[in-house]
């Protein structure tokens, strides 16, 4: 849902032909791109925070039962990866909203790309566990690292494309924008 909402915020700017006006403001390219994500992420982060706080109850019960390491790992693993997936959905939505002009391309991408990025990380982790005899913790670290690198690289690419739109290297809405 986060991916779809972020993408729609850019799409609505394109449909109303107001994205050009936003790009001509003195805001920086990252400011414009991340600004479109904030409105969508605030409710999702509030929900995530509430779930993470509620998740401390079973964590405390497990820690009191004599398993503090497992309790902390389970909480960190579950809520850390869900936060990473939330960031991935926001960045994918931002990238699709900036780079894709047609609604059909946007619709396909918002449902497939976040899952596909997780599958890449999971596939690499599985390969290392199966054929290189890596343990559980190194493969989870590999999965997390691959997903985090994908989020960072995709965010950088989205910002670069936003900047290209601003300086007029890329036509959008049928015309070239220049400052």
What does this structure look like?
With 179 residues, the protein is mainly alpha-helical. The chain is 82% helix and 2% strand. The protein has 7 helices and 2 strands. Strands 1-2 form a two-stranded antiparallel sheet. It is globular. The two termini are 34 Å apart. 25% of the residues are buried. Residues 175-179 have low confidence and may be disordered.
* Major sheet summary line: 2 strands, antiparallel
Give the overall shape, derived from the CA principal axes. Answer: globular
Calculate the terminal CA-CA distance, rounded to whole Å: 34 Å
Number of discrete helical segments? 7
**Binned strand content:** under 5%
Q: How many strands?
A: 2
SSE arrangement, N to C:
HHHHHHHEE
Structure classification: mainly alpha
Mean pLDDT: 85
Strand order of the largest sheet: 1-2
Low-confidence stretches: 175-179
Helix content: over 70%
Per-chain topology:
Blueprint: H1 2-15, H2 19-23, H3 29-54, H4 56-64, H5 68-99, H6 103-131, H7 136-167, E1 171-172, E2 175-176
Antiparallel strand pairs: 1-2
Keywords:
single chain, 179 residues, mainly alpha, two-stranded antiparallel ribbon, 7 helices, 2 strands, 82% helix, globular
In a few lines, what is going on in this structure?
This protein has 179 residues and is mainly α. 82% of the residues lie in helices and 2% in strands.
